[in-house]
Amino acid sequence: xxxxxxxxxxxxxxxxxxxxxxxxxxxxxxxxxxxxxxxxxxxxxxxxxxxxxxxxxxxxxxxxxxxxxxxxxxxxxxxxxxxxxxxxxxxxxxxxxxxxxxxxxxxxxxxxxxxxxxxxxxxxxxxxxxxxxxxxxxxxxxxxxxxxxxxxxxxxxxxxxxxxxxxxxxxxxxxxxxxxxxxxxxxxxxxxxxxxxxxxxxxxxxxxxxxxxxxxxxxxxxxxxxxxxxxxxxxxxxxxxxxxxxxxxxxxxxxxxxxxxxxxxxxxxxxxxxxxxxxxxxxxxxxxxxxxxxxxxxxxxxxxxxxxxxxxxxxxxxxxxxxxxxxxxxxxxxxxxxxxxxxxxxxxxxxxxxxxxxxx
Length: 360
What we know:
The protein is α+β, with helices and mostly antiparallel strands and 360 residues long. It contains 16 helices and 5 strands. A hairpin with a 3-residue loop joins β2 and β3.
C-alpha cells in the first residue's frame, strides 16, 4: 500500500508540475503587452519590470512606449524580454533547450518561426535562439557544426541591427575558434567590430585571442585603449578584467594577476556566471603558472562545479583539471576528467589541449 501511495503521489506531483508549466506558457503566449525585466540592482533579488509596447531595438538600446511615453532601456541592463503574443512553441523550445534536449528544442523553434502573425522582434528572437541551440547541439554532435555556422552567419548578415547580433557573432566566434583557420577567427572579429555598439566587445575578445597567441603585451595595450568604451560595472567590464589577468599571467606578473583575480571574484555577484567562470579560470591560470597546482585546482573546480552553463569556460576548466591531475600524479582522475571533457565538448579546442599534455 505504501509503495502504491508513493507512486501515486509521484505521478500527481509530475502532473501538477506539467500543468503549472503549461499554464505559465499559455499565460506568456497570450500576454497583450511586452514585458521587460531589468537586471537586479545591488541588494535586489529581482529586477524592475516594465510593461508596454516595444517600438525599436538595436544592439545598444530598446525603446518601449509605456502609458503614451517612450522610455529607453540600455541592452546592458536587460535580464529578459517577453513579447506580447509570442507563439507557445517558443516557450516550449526554451524549456526543452534548458533541459538539454536540443533536437526537440530545434523542432519547437521551427514551429514558432512558422506561426502566423509573428512580430518581427519575435521572429528575430526565434531565429537567434534556433541558431544558438544548433551551436549548443554541435558541442556533442560534430555533424551539426556546419549547419550552426551557417545559421549564425545568416542571422548576423540578415539582422545587422538586432540586439541579438553581438551575441550571435560571439557564438559564431566560439565555433570557428574550434577549427584550425586563424583567418576565419580574425574575419568574425572584424565583422563584429562593425556592429553598432559591439566594438568594445570585439576588442575584449581580440585581446583574449592575442593572449592565447602569446602576445600579452598587445592584449594589455588593447584592453587599456578600450576601457573608456566599456560601461562601468557591466558584465563586459568584468570579462575584460579576466582577459587582463590572463595577459598579466602571460607576462609572468603572477603577484599582480592573483591580486586582480581575487579582487574581481570578491566584487562580483555570485549569480554572475558569465563573469565568475572566466575569473576563477584566470585565477587558476595564475596559480598554476606560479607553481601552485593544488591552489590552482581549487580555482578551476569552482568553474567545473558551479558554472557549467558557461560552456567554453567550463571546457577550459576541465582541460586544466585534467592536466593538473597528471601533474599531481593522479592518472585515474585525469582520465575520468578527460572523458567528461570529451563527452561534453568533443569539438572543443580545450579537449585538444588536454590530450597528451603533461606539463603546466
